[in-house]
Design a protein that fits this description.
By secondary structure, this protein is an alpha+beta fold. The protein is built from eleven helices and 15 strands. It binds zinc ion.
């Protein structure tokens, strides 16, 4: 991943007291990314809160809890990571493995449209569930890889970062990626849970050291800077799953609770929403781009076919004549 640049566009608000000062920033209470900086130690972060966005994605597919949880983590991580990058297009986080959940895909557009899906083997998943123990990455996803892609459209360079699935949780795998790829140091914490009504909720905290080019002069010693970094990681680690996902706890209040002693600034929040980008035209284009031989095999016995979007379950019907046109086109 390219060293991300901050997307701040408005003057920061210093949280000096529990965030009553930033009432106007609370227009969005859920499904958001809250950028922040722990300025004295040249750290920046993102707090992600997901409510209806995550719930609608997971429930649309009626995924079992273990799949919903890890897909929710992938989505929360994708939202957090994408928000640190300056790009105009689509950011994708994907895992592939030989475990019961063979594929996870979460993608986020610059405009905040989020979608995701999982492919899993119900029988293998039941086996893992029956054997008890933690729902860890090795047990659920198996051996495989985690990939990040930034796609900014045709005629642009496509960025891809890839790392082996190493870690007990998806957050650990992402952390492993940061370490491997010699990126700026980062700490990540992610939580996915269901509320009393059974609605899926997610949260993510990401802290990074500012890249060299974006640092202002630090007046203290190098040790003091490192101490500030280590303290921020410990404080981040102290955030509970409940705090990360609780819709009653305003993001600013959580950041204040965690980091107020070091001075935390919050920036304008970005909204995210569940939204798919599929369309009949898009599917038509994909089908027409298949090799000639594969296009000959399209269609059911009666020549027609229905294509279902894996992300949102929308179905697109192609009549016999449409299929024939694609095959010969
Ligand atoms: Zn779709």
């Amino acid at each position: 991943m390219r060293p991300p640049r901050s997307r701040r566009s408005v003057a920061p608000v210093l949280i000096a007291a529990p965030a009553t000062l930033v009432l106007n920033e609370r227009m969005i209470a859920d499904d958001l990314v809250e950028p922040f900086e722990i300025e004295p130690f040249q750290l920046r972060g993102r707090l992600v809160r997901l409510g209806p966005t995550l719930d609608s994605i997971v429930k649309r597919h009626d995924y079992p809890p273990a799949v919903g949880t890890v897909l929710g983590e992938a989505i929360a991580l994708a939202v957090a990571l994408s928000s640190t990058l300056k790009y105009d297009g689509v950011f994708t986080l994907q895992t592939k493995g030989d475990g019961p959940i063979r594929l996870l895909v979460a993608d986020v557009t610059t405009g905040g449209a989020v979608r995701g899906y999982a492919q899993y083997d119900p029988a293998k998943l039941a086996e893992v569930a029956a054997s008890g123990g933690a729902a860890s990455v090795p047990r659920l996803l198996g051996a495989g890889y985690l990939a990040f892609t930034v796609d900014q459209g045709e005629d642009t360079e496509r960025y891809q970062g890839i790392v082996a699935l190493e870690g007990a949780t998806l957050a650990e795998c992402v952390h492993h990626y940061f370490r491997q790829s010699e990126q700026i140091a980062a700490g990540i914490k992610v939580a996915v849970d269901r509320d009393a009504q059974g609605a899926w909720r997610g949260g993510c905290l990401l802290i990074q050291k500012l890249p060299d080019g974006e640092r202002s002069e630090f007046l203290g010693t190098r040790e003091e800077l490192e101490d500030g970094w280590r303290r921020a990681l410990i404080l981040m680690g102290s955030a509970t799953s409940q705090e990360l996902t609780d819709p009653e706890l305003a993001p600013e209040d959580l950041l204040f609770r965690l980091f107020h002693e070091d001075g935390v600034r919050v920036f304008r929040t970005h909204a995210v929403r569940a939204e798919c980008r599929c369309s009949r035209e898009r599917i038509d284009r994909v089908l027409r781009s298949l090799p000639f031989e594969e296009r000959q095999d399209l269609g059911e016995a009666d020549g027609s076919m229905t294509v279902t979007c894996q992300f949102c379950n929308a179905s697109y019907r192609f009549e016999r004549a449409d299929v024939a046109a694609i095959a010969t086109g």
